[in-house]
Amino acid sequence: MASSSTFERMFREIEGCMKKPVLSMEISGSCEKDSYGIESYGISVTTLEEVFLRVAGCDYDEVECFEENNRSLISESVRAISARRDHKTIMFQLMIPAIFLFIGLLFMELKPHPDQISLTLSTSYFNPLLSGGGGGGPIPFNLSFPIAEKVAQNVKGGWIQRCNPSSYKFPNSEKALADAVEAAGPTLGPSLLSMSEYLMSSFNESYQSRYGAIVMDDQNTDGSLGYTVLHNFSCQHAAPTFINLMNSAILRLASHNMNATIQTRN
Length: 266
Description:
Layout: H1 2-17, H2 22-28, H3 48-56, H4 60-84, H5 86-109, E1 138-142, H6 146-152, E2 159-162, H7 173-201, E3 212-216, E4 227-231, H8 238-255
Parallel strand pairs: 1-2, 1-3
Antiparallel strand pairs: 3-4
Protein name: ABC transporter A family member 1-like
Keywords: Membrane, Transmembrane, Transmembrane helix
């Protein structure tokens, strides 16, 4: 408590010794002789850095100069170390990637073995006969458009099984139709649903297995054709086989060459 009163008295003495403003002195017409020229005062906490600098007898300018000299020495040493490692940098950042790029380009230039046999993906290998060889089997086909009739005449590897309207309906047929329209559109959706219902109701029409079905769209104004393949998931190679079957049939129709076919090579 004694120290608090001492500080309070000290602050009052400082305020009493502060220099009066010029305006107040002009109004009063007098100048206090006891004024020591103190304009303002403040209180701050001294940092440890300031204390150590004062004890060491130096100022901030000298410290900043010392730090700049240290930084320059460190940067020069780093440059010297980097200069020693330049050859490693060039090796790992330029030479080795260039070598791998060159090897990759060499692999791209490699050609398949000339003796490799090309394959014709066809449904003729499905449903093998007892005497050996493939029998083809039925290919369910939606022939609702005239272009579908023309394409079907050029299909090889099986016989066309016409998709007819079926009395079978999926449970909750309205929801099934809405889902089909949402997935494939208002034109293709009902056709896919009709083909699915036909496949479900025509198990006994043939003793042979069916691995896929074709639903064709109408021919576009630019002459292009579109189709959809429904394939049996139990036969993993059914999808590419039926796609190649349709592409080959369209090629024969466009080229007017019944011997035209599409072959693949691994």
